[in-house]
Amino acid sequence: MLEAEVEASGGEQEDSGEADRAREEIRAVAAMGPSGEGDTGGPGTAREESLAMWNVAGMAMAPGSSAQSESVAAKLDFLAAQLRAATGPMYLALSEVNGSRAAFKAAGGLSEWLAELGYASEMATGMLSPDGMARGGVVLGWLDGVVRVIRPARTDSAGVTLTGTFRAPGHSADANVDIGVVYGRHRKGGALRAVQLVSRMAATVNADRHRRGLVAAGDYNATPSESFQTATRPRGKADEALEILTGGGDGSAPSEAEVVPLGHDHAHGEFSRARWAGAGGARVGTSTIDHALTAGSERGQWRMRARLFATAHDQSPISDHEYIVLRRAARSRDDAEDEGAEWRPPRHGHGSWRPATWARFTAVAQAEAER
Is 4 exposed, middle or buried (0-12, 13-18, 19+ CB in 10 A)? Predict the structure, then answer.
């Protein structure tokens, strides 16, 4: 994790006209298209069936200092550009989201922010840390009004998975897909628990594979084989369980679930998670622990469309995990498009915000932190 942004809690916040005006301006910034000149293909336009997964490196919507506000702003700015683009994902799987569910659902929280961009969403909170912050939560989003919700998103008792049942455009009337976000927390066997839960879900949909499917995406904090990591990374029980579930992750052995290939050149040090050799130093890959596992009718239907390490306007990294976009094969002939179409990440850059906007963003963040 690059940072641990702190959400404070406490006394009542007095409602002020300045805070309200600040929120409206921040929403207006989020509503801009990638060029900053308005929507260029936002929610409601035709979207391919796709999913984006990203470990947001401990992001909380109510940071406790101006420096942390800038970090959150960079992440929201990047996400807003991706979600509003014509190529924006149908589903969104975010892991390592900090804060309480109450804060997520509150006015000005992440749920409201996503709704402004056309996404319904749900959150499963992480574990409570000694500092009182819930850390390591997950958020699942879907295009509201485009995807039909068959069963609302639900979490497991450990809070390491959040899964909903949906019917996307092109689905037959008697078919559906389970879409889940996963975060294999380091503490208290969270990674092993996540793999075990996905294994159970895979077995269930495989028993009815003609009508049911599963996509479980996120940061598993585990690798399906030694080839997905550097030699110095130790392997544990979660890694062994993931190897069994996926047959080693390369499709060479029978398995209950498939790992969607992400196209990394592991042999030459390319991985989904990285560290940086000092401030402004070179990026060094460590392991590919971000995975999308598919089973049932979804197996073999998804492929990697794009992946990148997101950066702020000054090119500094804002997460130690790649933002990864997956695309599903067309469900009908009418929906088939050019599979070779090039994907370019939408432009973003909160560095272009006016000083007044930055001041108001900070004011909102501090007001939310004091709630």
Answer: middle
Q: Are 280 and 292 in contact (CB under 8 A)?
A: no
Burial of 330 (0-12, 13-18, 19+ CB in 10 A): middle
91-129: per-residue pLDDT in tens?
A: 999 999 999 999 899 888 899 999 999 999 999 998 888
The CA-atom distances, in angstroms, between 265 and each of 115, 193, 259, 361 are 37, 28, 15, 40
Buried b (16+ CB within 10 A) or exposed e, 119-155: bbbbbbbbbeeeeebbbbbbbbbbbbebbeeeeebeb
Q: Which residues pair with 139 in a beta bridge?
A: 94, 123
Tell me what the mean pLDDT of segment 172-193 comes to. Answer: 92
Torsion of CA 288, 164, 61, 323, to 10 degrees: 30
State how far the Cα of 338 lies from the Cα of 335, in Å rounded to an integer. 10
Closest Cα to residue 94, out of 345, 263, 290, 260?
290
Q: What pTM value is reported for the model?
A: 0.80
* H helix or E strand, kind and range, residue 152: strand 148-155
Distance CA 123, CA 104 (A): 7
Across 193-301, the runs of DSSP E, i.e. the strands, are 212-219, 258-259, 273-276, 283-287, 290-296
Taken in order 146, 166, 195, 127, the sign of the CA dihedral is positive
Handedness of CA 58, 314, 285, 252 (dihedral sign): positive
3-class DSSP state of 101: helix
List the one residue out of 103, 105, 111 whose CA is nearest residue 142. 111
Other CB atoms within 10 Å distance of the CB of residue 61: 24
